[in-house]
Amino acid sequence: MARRSLPLLKHLLSSSSSSTTPTLRRSVTYMPRPGDGEPRPVTLIPGDGIGPLVTNAVEQVMEAMHAPVYFEKYEVHGDMMRVPSEVMESIKKNKVCLKGGLTTPMGGGVSSLNLQLRKELDLYASLVNCFNLQGLPTRHQNVDIVVIRENTEGEYAGLEHEVVPGVVESLKVITKFCSERIAKYAFEYAYLNNRKKVTAVHKANIMKLADGLFLESCREVATKYPGIKYNEIIVDNCCMQLVSKPEQFDVMVTPNLYGNLVANTAAGIAGGSGVMPGGNVGADHAIFEQGASAGNVGNEKLLEQKTANPVAVLLSSAMMLRHLQFPSFADRLETAVKQTDWVDTHFAAPLTKTFAGAAQKFHLPTHGNQWRALYVCKANYAPLSPISFLERSATVYRDRTSVVYGSLKFTWAETHQRCLKLASALSQLGISRGDVQNGEKGDITSNLVSLRCSVFALSIILLGVNLFILKVAALAPNVPAMYELHFAVPMAGAVFCTLNTRHDSNMVSILLEHSEAKIIFVDHQLLDLARGALDLLEKTGTKSPMVVLISESDGSSPTGFSSSSYEYESLLENGHSGFEIRQPESEWDPISINYTSGTTSRPKGVVYSHRGAYLNTLATLFLHGIGTMPVYLWTVPMFHCNGWCLTWGMAAQGGANVCLRKVSPKDIFDSIDQHKVTHMAGAPTVLSMIVNSAMEELGFGVSHLYGLTETYGPGTYCSWKPEWDSLPLNERSKMKARQGVQHLGLEDVDVKDPVTMESVPADGKTIGEIMLRGNTVMSGYLKDSKATEDAFRGGWFRSGDLAVKHSDGYIEVKDRAKDIVITGGENVCTLEVETVLYNHPAILEVAVVGRPDDLWDKPLDRLPRYMAPRTVIFEDLPRNSTGKVQKFILREKAKALGSLFRMPYHFDMDDAWTDERTTVYVNSFFTRN
């Protein structure tokens, strides 16, 4: 499908076309969407006074950095009666305008052209960002305030008349619609840009009806954003607080007149109105210009010297570039401006004279005019997405086996058709990009694409346009439907949210509420689990998702979930195989949400992008030497990191997916023998099922991976070296047990001191934290900006895992940071203790955690005294779906035991190594100081 070139602010926080008031209910999640990169026309109005000087500087900077925009320049001056019609047509056509300052005439006779532009284009939101710039001396530091004011009503509505000679009446108009619209805009801006607080500025103590209505609207909207702090302040107190303590403010939302006062005050505090960027935006158009008062427009001295400070317009241009979906250009320009030391209030004259001056001042590359004709367009750029693999396989491997499940088999042509029909059916149910209005069963509603965005943010986390994207959840094992959903859901334009089948109903309900899934696909064997989760949602007043029942292929499963549920195969048959795939608007669009396993805390929603999934898929295929038409045995849950992205990888290579509902040694060996399996993967718990002799003797080639949900699964790979083949078995085992070097999809992996961010020595002894960065690191945690910030602090993803780096550059994991125990002043890696205990033939599984105590007791003779466990408890170990022990649960149990008691004298720790009655239990749980 051809990519749409909609403006960034299309449908920005506005109601749907069928509604007269904006909706208040937040039911969507936003993700970044860089654009298609085609050169875009922009209407340029240099304006009055110094306007031509500063806009000319912008033109030269754009030329120097080869920005993919070109200007349509028009002369407009403040003394005109109206903006010329050809200028208005240009803005309406281009959707975007960059404007210098226009003088606003005083008194009667000539109306404000700025007011005309805002009214005719419905530019209802004015945004000004006031923040400290390097080198600008100010009374306050850490100022970063965003002022958002309503632009179309209030005192600036222009409703004035002379009642009788000498008496003029000026009307202030406040409406519910516009108040809700600007309030929701402010809260959405805060939500998108990781802002923590919204402050409503008012004068409701005097204007009880007008400002009272504004406050009422803000309060209603605030209830839909519980994660954002909301407060109110009277405008006169606000000005005083701004001057005395500006750092207390974050996002401020105001009616028209107050916003003008507040924005200019904040700008003056942060360094001056001439350096603050801004924009006036609406549903279809945007005008970017100096943010605060353009009082310097007619400065005769600046005009005479032909020097002016273009910082405000340059930063506004960066906002414009991001709006036009060129985030990399926006970042370069924005960073250059911020890194420049602004000692003088005026800009050096060379900037307005030469391209080289602009490039040097802003640290921009000057490649010469020979590069000017090169740019990104649809002919040489398409968003990376793994759903493209399926279309290719349907052609290249048309009649080859795609899916095997018991006696059921599909070809790639059939899988392609089934996924198209399922995507079509989802679309008919209202699942795609945009808001959804779900009718009763049988009432299939259509859905319009709804784009929303963050207009600007100089410290933005989510870049560019953001989409309303709906989630489709699945609670199912490795069955064909689960595989098909990995393609069908993103083909419909939605995000696939996989749920762990080992969760209980309470956790499933929590994740459904958190993900805001509109539909959940439930395997027939998990009906009771799903029922319990939906019952809990109903009790909390949360709307439950629609249910689609995945029946067993032989028809032996239950008949249905409820009268309002759908059945998978019936739903699929209602779809159309000619469905036009909804390709991602951008490769940064989210493709899936995978919740962390909860080994150390409550699960977090990890967001994967189409780009990351695509790159991780190819990297995994290449790194493991998976060639064409492999046979892959599904022992890794598809709900875990999307099966490490091999769900899409098998389509890329035309492989056969051998699906197993349950994993057992018999099923594994039978499948390997029957289907001639070439590849499989699994957690250590899976491999332990089939290890009765050395893996090499069984004909397996074992590769060791380390990774996290946040890295799309694999983060490192223990790349084997031929010279290690001749090492003794125990030495080879030690080499293979290391976690290795970075996966091909990652740029870098390092072991660092988490405080100094310095790399630890490559001595195999010094412990640091594993940190990763690259294209296959998550986009972030769903609706958890604090956790995302913490994880990416310092420009690396912080894994929370501790490791050492060996002299050959290979890393070796030692423990989780949370699992380190301090005893006797020493740091103890619980993994080392577990390794020693695993050497005992009677111990199958063991986990070690710590609990507070001052006492010492008899150590094990194979460990230093401080490592010796103090308490031994025998019980089942709590595990997640990947087989990892959930030590946070064990730590809570250890705390509940209270202070350490000494072991009974008749229990000898030495006997624990010889007494089978003591150690024969399948799961053993050790705690120690």
UniProtKB/TrEMBL annotation:
Xref: Pfam families: AMP-binding, Iso_dh
Sequence ranges of Low complexity compositional bias: 13-29
UniProt keyword rRNA processing, yes or no: no
UniProt-listed PANTHER family: ACYL-ACTIVATING ENZYME (PTHR43859), ISOVALERATE--COA LIGASE AAE2 (PTHR43859:SF5)
Subcellular location: Cytoplasm, Cytosol; Mitochondrion
Originating organism: Populus alba x Populus x berolinensis
Keywords: ATP-binding, Ligase, Magnesium, Manganese, Membrane, Metal-binding, Mitochondrion, NAD, Nucleotide-binding, Oxidoreductase, Transit peptide, Transmembrane, Transmembrane helix, Tricarboxylic acid cycle
Origin organism lineage: Eukaryota, Viridiplantae, Streptophyta, Embryophyta, Tracheophyta
Protein name: Isopropylmalate dehydrogenase-like domain-containing protein
Biological process (GO), any one: tricarboxylic acid cycle
